[in-house]
Amino acid sequence: MTILDKIIAHKAQEVAQRKEQVSVQVLEKSGFFAKTNNSLKTSLLNPASSGIIAEFKRKSPSKGIINGNVTVEEVTAGYVKAGAACLSVLTDFEFFGGTSEDFLKARRTNPTIPMIRKDFMIDEYQIIEAKSLGADVILLIAANLTPQRIKDLGKLTKELGMETLLEIHDEEELNRSLNQYIDVVGVNNRNLKNFAEQNVNASLELAEKIPAECIKISESCISQAETIKLLKSVGYKGFLIGETFMKTENPAEALKKFINEVRS
């Protein structure tokens, strides 16, 4: 059983429990449910955008605890001030140490920036839950979803006024997963089945294979400003980075320095 298999098996149990605890009707009464969407597409296409999707992540299955000494409010507000184009907040607790409360705190602290709910989405309930938390963007991971499930979940996401970020790792996932409900295509440089890669080769290999009309972002294994410049040269508009910033004492300051290096 791969790490991804373990995550999805646990996620199925977790979602079943949450369905029993909080009904869809209760979620739909959330104050954030009627919120106007902050568009990731618009943010990334802005010529002045840094393109950086800054992630709040306490731990990962491969690295363990990354940073347990900072608050989500402090870090995300700092990210926004430093020039992030979007925020990504983990809500998976078992493997990544994130919670729905983390997302809510970040949303209340940063009401106008696009925010991605970073989790392993397998059920319509999670999409509705994300809307209730104030999410703007839903992450759908091709590695753990069939093409039909991607389409179904993407359709619901669109109906609720949010955007869909489709995450792929290789050409096979790209070819079977694209549909009319996808807003942004993200290439995860790390293979979720083993979390082994430490480079952006996947993004470079897929750059020309992703349809030109798609907005594309590169995710993970990015730690150098020169890497951003290289990825921009082959058409990437966004860059999801978490660990590079989170492993420092001051993630926001690390982001600010990084953006200055990219623009120099």
UniProtKB/TrEMBL annotation:
Entries under CDD domains matching the protein: IGPS
Reaction(s) the record says it catalyses: 1-(2-carboxyphenylamino)-1-deoxy-D-ribulose 5-phosphate + H(+) = (1S,2R)-1-C-(indol-3-yl)glycerol 3-phosphate + CO2 + H2O
Pathways involved: Amino-acid biosynthesis; L-tryptophan biosynthesis; L-tryptophan from chorismate: step 4/5
The Indole-3-glycerol phosphate synthase domain, residue ranges: 4-257
GO molecular function: indole-3-glycerol-phosphate synthase activity
Top EC category: lyase
Record's protein name: indole-3-glycerol-phosphate synthase
InterPro entries reported for this sequence: Aldolase_TIM (IPR013785), Indole-3-glycerol_P_synth (IPR045186), Indole-3-glycerol_P_synth_dom (IPR013798), Indole-3-GlycerolPSynthase_CS (IPR001468), RibuloseP-bd_barrel (IPR011060)
UniProt-listed Enzyme Commission number(s): 4.1.1.48
Keywords from the named record: Amino-acid biosynthesis, Aromatic amino acid biosynthesis, Decarboxylase, Lyase, Tryptophan biosynthesis
Gene name in the database record: trpC
